[in-house]
């Protein structure tokens, strides 16, 4: 056989490894073997080192071929050992996969797409690999396991998990910049922000009586209240007054207590679905 006959295309390489062509090109790009230039795949110096070459065809034009031995290359065969999904990252960080994906979206590394997640160029730069569920065709992204050591990811994770640091005596700063009165309110605000839900804080109720809701969701006309400690008689009196106003004027409201915070990831989306907002 000639050297040329011992080479295979990237699509043939994908088939040999049991992957889709799209996944194969994305993995090779993440490995730094190829790059996209003017809507064409080009070899990098690293790809040339791995013995990638160009082949010209009247039917397909110029495309890249690889030595057939590359099917046994460690970087391609053992990718699953080096990568994990949002669920895997969640297990390492103590957050649900949905929240991890929203944090990654906040960083600009993925965007929502067809009930799943689409990798961006910024996510590719972090080593993400676009994949697709074999049974549902829903897109998702595989990430290097070492992403948990990434400075940007760690900072975003800490912002969310620690519910932000106290900046002044007046309150706590949420991820979207809102200044709130407690860590509990910050947790709710961060959840709404990462879920992409438009919300206002300390929104005046549309009444003659003076009263402010903790949060307001204009998309569905819903108020959210977090009831804190009831040890203060004046706080308890204000709580009862506001509850009476919601009931008297028929305003839609959902309420949370201190004990609900540990289950916020389950309770908040469940409550919002009752008002027609899927998240």
Automatic annotation (TrEMBL):
The protein's name in its UniProt record: Glycerol kinase
Source species: Amphritea opalescens
Species classification: Bacteria, Pseudomonadati, Pseudomonadota, Gammaproteobacteria, Oceanospirillales
């Amino acid at each position: 056989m000639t050297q040329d006959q011992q080479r295979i295309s990237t699509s043939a390489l994908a088939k040999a490894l049991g992957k889709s062509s799209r996944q194969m090109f994305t993995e090779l790009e993440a490995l730094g073997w190829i790059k996209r230039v003017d809507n064409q795949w080009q070899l990098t110096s690293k790809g040339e080192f791995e013995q990638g070459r160009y082949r010209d065809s009247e039917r397909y034009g110029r495309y890249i071929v690889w030595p057939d031995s590359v099917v046994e290359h460690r970087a391609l065969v053992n990718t699953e050992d080096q990568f994990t999904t949002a669920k895997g990252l969640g297990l390492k960080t103590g957050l649900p996969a949905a929240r991890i994906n929203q944090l990654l979206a906040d960083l600009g590394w993925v965007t929502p797409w067809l009930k799943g997640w689409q990798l961006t160029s910024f996510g590719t730069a972090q080593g993400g690999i676009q994949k697709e569920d074999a049974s549902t065709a829903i897109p998702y992204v595989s990430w290097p396991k070492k992403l948990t050591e990434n400075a940007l990811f760690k900072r975003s994770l800490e912002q969310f998990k620690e519910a932000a640091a106290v900046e002044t005596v007046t309150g706590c700063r949420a991820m979207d910049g809102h200044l709130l009165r407690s860590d509990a309110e910050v947790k709710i605000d961060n959840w709404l922000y990462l879920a992409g839900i438009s919300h206002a804080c300390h929104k005046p109720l549309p009444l003659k009586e003076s009263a402010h809701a903790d949060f307001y969701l204009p998309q569905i006309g819903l108020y959210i209240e977090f009831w804190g400690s009831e040890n203060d008689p004046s706080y308890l009196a204000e709580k009862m007054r506001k509850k009476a106003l919601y009931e008297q004027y028929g305003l839609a409201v959902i309420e949370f207590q201190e004990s609900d915070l540990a289950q916020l990831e389950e309770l908040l989306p469940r409550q919002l679905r009752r008002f027609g907002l899927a998240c």
